[in-house]
Amino acid sequence: MDTAAPTSLRPASPPSRRGRRRSGFSLVEVLVAMILLITAAIGMTSYTLTASTTRRLAQQRSYALIAAQEVMDSIRTLGFRNATTGTFSRNRTVGGVPLTVAVTVQTTATPTLEGVAVTVSNSRGTKLQEFFTTLYSESQ
Fold this sequence. Notes:
Blueprint: H1 27-82, E1 86-94, E2 97-107, E3 113-122, E4 127-136
Antiparallel strand pairs: 1-2, 2-3, 3-4
């Protein structure tokens, strides 16, 4: 009787270490990947917040420019004789943005000249626009 086991039932020889492939990722690789992803996410979040703040401020500045131009035009329409010296302010809403428009009309050393300063601020008190102009007397 042959005592040798058939060749199909023999255990397979173990693969050599050099030819064996790794499956999956090591813990270090996963940690490095997570750190890279977190760093990228923080950078994108920071960029998004900065862009949003900049866009909102630019929009407020645009609306402040509109409000300032309207006030400047109305003061120029009044003319030198009808412009009252002093400071006044009023709250306006332009494009849904609450603004404070402060106007200062002051006399100068020249009796035929008045200086006008228009300052527009947002609800937080941040100056958005500031303009200066002069009114001349019609009679010289």
